[in-house]
Amino acid sequence: MTKLWWAQIKAVIRLEMKKTFFARRGLWIYILALLPVLLFIAHTVIISHERDRSHGIAHQGDKKLTHQDLLAVKTGMTNTEVIALLGRPPERAHWNERQISRVTSAVSGTGGSGTPVNLSTSYNLNSIYTDSTIFKAGGLDNAGNVYSSNLLTANRILNGVQFNCGPANELDAVHGTGQPIGLPAGQFASLHLLAASAYGPVLGQAITVTYTDGSASTFTQNFSDWCGCVPNPGEQPGESLAVAMPYRDSSNGTQDNQASYLYGYTFALNRAKTVQSLTLPDNRNVIVLAATLTKQSEGTRVGTSGQAPVVDVPHENYTYSDGANNLYVGLADGKVVDINLHESFNLPNESVVFAGVFQFFYLRLAIFFGCLGIFMNLFRGEILDKSLHFYFLAPIRRDVLMAGKFLAGLLATCTIFVTSELLQIIVFTGQFSPSVRELYLYQNHGLAQAVAYLGVTALACLGYGAFFLAAGMLFRNPILPAAAILVWEAANPFLPALLKKFSVIYYLKSLCPVDIPTPPGTPPLLSLLVSNPDPISTPVAILGIVILALLVLCVSSFQVRRMEINYTTE
């Protein structure tokens, strides 16, 4: 009996394989399988073009450079030092960029005019620390970053006006909370602030000075960000760059080399009235470090634009090559500020690129929908063609018929997708030179990874094939079960531990030979999709897919025995 069943299975396989490979409705499956191959062919063409360009750049240079020569360039070097080291750049670009002059206009001192406002009773955050101090406070930006007291001295004079900052390592700055701050009694012409914003620019902030008669003057001001992410510090109307500092301090006692800025602001008051209080914007991201009141004859009024001088800064880009690796050097004002070494082949990075294409496109989309198109049509397609009854009238057990159809679908999908994966590996490794290819295959585990990718592809066809075969028998509309399975697979990282085990992708991710890195800053959702939070061993993963497929096939065998054909309802 077993021989008869096996003969019947082989007969079904022969019939189904022919229909599967030459079915018109399956043309899009071949397109899906070939897309990654075309992608890697395009990648190889681009790499070949870049290699030719590198050879051309190296040939035009004054010196024959090595990889070590390219690594010798450091930030801060002058253009003369770079040229002395590497020779005249084969490719060179230069231009001028108009920038706000980042100079310190508020000098240290105590001889300025005006009446400084005592803000000490209103201090509610720490904004200044001495270098190398470790602290737990949130700092100016509530993320542990502050001004350096080694750079921002306590007493500053800006446009002749005296400003007194708070003490370092203590509460020394104010952010508005809606509560008024008392002002020295008197009649003044102007209010001056040293302030900045965090996570700015912060726009349209209201500042109110209340007089003793109950009236008030309200001003609307934009505040620029305090750190070096500002392209043109001091660019807001009514704002001037007061202090520019080359670094800031962090709560762990280090310096992060991020430039930081403090700005000056001037507001005209009603000179005929006596001031009483100051109300700052009710905004944690607007920080005031010092305030001073001046009379008409004191200080020098800031211009209406309030901007620091604009200067033309010369920029240059140099390109060098050793014939394989390209070095791009960015210079500003005659000094190196940016270095980008593009290596011809970075094997770990290349492996990650291949893994990304495999996991995100090939595994989750191409194989998934390819199996959907083949396995779901094994029964559903013949119902639509009104030909399934020929099988059911033949002297063959239905579960044997189902086994034959499933094996035919498995052979077809494995032939298509394993072949495509093999072509991808050949094209991918073909971009390497013979020596690099040997290094990748035998020393960087490339050969073992290739075998693993082929195995994962076959197991994916097995797992998804079983599910889509069952869906084709249980549902009339294949779109609904396909969408449900797709959502279930995509939601796998968020499912409880037990439910995860009923998903094909759970086991396949553990079998993928290369992990896609998730550096700091990677969105949490992407991190979950990339990595398996609880990976399992290879034997367990393979056994899990096989058992899962067998369970689904057992359900399908019961369903096919009770299956009735009614073409009029389809």
Tally the beta strands.
Answer: 20
Q: How many structural units, i.e. domains?
A: 3
Most strands sheet = 6 strands, antiparallel
Instruction: Report the span from N to C terminus.
Output: 35 Å
State Rg: 35 Å
The total of helices stands at 15
How much β-strand is present in the residues? 15-25%
Give average pLDDT, whole number: 85
Shape: elongated
Task: List unreliable stretches of 5+ residues.
Answer: 301-308
Kindly name the structural category: alpha+beta
Report what the structure shows:
It is a single chain. With 570 residues, this protein is α+β, with helices and mostly antiparallel strands. The chain has three domains: 12-44 and 352-569; 66-97 and 315-342, Beta-lactamase Inhibitory Protein, Chain:B, domain 1, CATH 3.30.1450; 107-308, no CATH class. The chain has 15 helices and 20 strands. Strands 3, 8, 10, 13, 15 and 17 form a six-stranded antiparallel sheet that branches. A four-stranded antiparallel sheet has the order 1-18-19-20. It has a four-stranded antiparallel sheet with strand order 9-16-11-12, with no helix packed on it. A hairpin with a 4-residue loop joins strand 11 and strand 12 (216-223). The longest helix is centred in the first third of the chain and has 34 residues, at 27-60. It is elongated, with a radius of gyration of 35 Å. The model is unreliable at 301-308 (pLDDT under 50).
